[in-house]
Structure formats: structure tokens, C-alpha cells
Amino acid sequence: MRLVDSKVIALIEDDFEDLEHWYPVLRLQEEGATVDITGKEAEKVYTGKYGVPATSSVALKDIKADDYDAILVPGGWAPDKLRRYPEVIDLVKDMDKARKPIGQICHAGWVLISADILNGRNVTSTPGIKDDMKNAGADWHDEPVIIDGHIVSSRRPPDLPSYMKAFIDKLAGQ
């Protein structure tokens, strides 16, 4: 249990990709991390693309980057909603400025694009937003996982084992 003292924000909104939320949350918890599922409202049930629910434990307005060690952005259609919340953009910018691990998979790159933190960074995502990532100044690669400093990016659900190994290693300081 390498992450016993770690606190992680797991952003949530309706239409998240079920595996891209739950697999990372459960892997982090297995490593001992505290994971706060964070949505626009606390104690709200959000529904994934395939119907799997997730209940937020904390509201965005109550989160401060200084209190956390890392942040995860799920894929699915949730990122298109999440990036519209100023609180999410501020959190991602603050985590980036502090060089804390930022995990993004699939369509989650949209949130990092809106936070304007991808210029000159090596990343991957679902190929469906490759042009968006490149237009934001990122160097896009078609690889299961890309680590660029504190940003860990991945493409899609089949890449989850590689993604979470890299993210957990980064959070553990390895």
C-alpha cells in the first residue's frame, strides 16, 4: 500500500466512461489512497455512459488543490461538461502549477485543453480528439500511456492497466 497518505480528486459528471472512472478509483484505493469523488454537487448520484452510478462525496466549491496530491479526469462525455465549470479549470491549472500528478484518459484531454496547459506537452488520448489536442499545442502520440512530467495520459479502456501503473508510480514518487 504505497499511497496511504495520498489524497486524490476524481472528477465526476454524468456520462463518464464507467471503466475510466471506476478502475482508477478502485486501483488507488487498493494502494491506500483516499479518493474524493468530486462533482458539481456533493452527495449527488452521477450516471455513467453504461448506467453504472457514482455518488460524489465532495462538491467542487469545497475542493482546494493545496489539500490534494493528484487529480484524475475520466473520459466519456463527462469531460465536455466538466470543462464548463470554472472550478474544474481552476483546479486543473492549480494542480499543473504545483506539478501534482494529473491523470487524463480518452476524452479527458478536453478538460486539459480548456485549462490551457497542453502547449508543448507530450500526450495521448482517444484518437477522436487527436486534432483538438494538437490544436492546443500538444505533441500527440498513439501510445497506451504517455508521461510528460506530472501529466499522465492514456487512450481508452484497454490501456487502463498501463495508465494506472504509470499514474500510481508517479503519485508514489517513482
From TrEMBL:
Pfam families recorded: DJ-1_PfpI
UniProt cross-references to CDD domains, sorted A to Z: GATase1_PfpI_like
DJ-1/PfpI domain mapped to chain residues: 7-169
Keywords tagged on the record: Glutamine amidotransferase
Keyword Lipid metabolism carried by entry: no
InterPro entries xrefs: C56_PfpI-like, Class_I_gatase-like, DJ-1/PfpI
UniProt-listed Gene3D superfamilies: 3.40.50.880
SUPFAM superfamilies, per database record: Class I glutamine amidotransferase-like
NCBIfam families membership: PfpI
PANTHER family: DJ-1 PROTEIN (PTHR42733), DJ-1_PFPI DOMAIN-CONTAINING PROTEIN (PTHR42733:SF13)
Family the UniProt entry places it in: Belongs to the peptidase C56 family.
Protein name from the UniProt record: Type 1 glutamine amidotransferase domain-containing protein
Gene source species: Virgibacillus xinjiangensis
Taxonomic lineage from the root: Bacteria, Bacillati, Bacillota, Bacilli, Bacillales
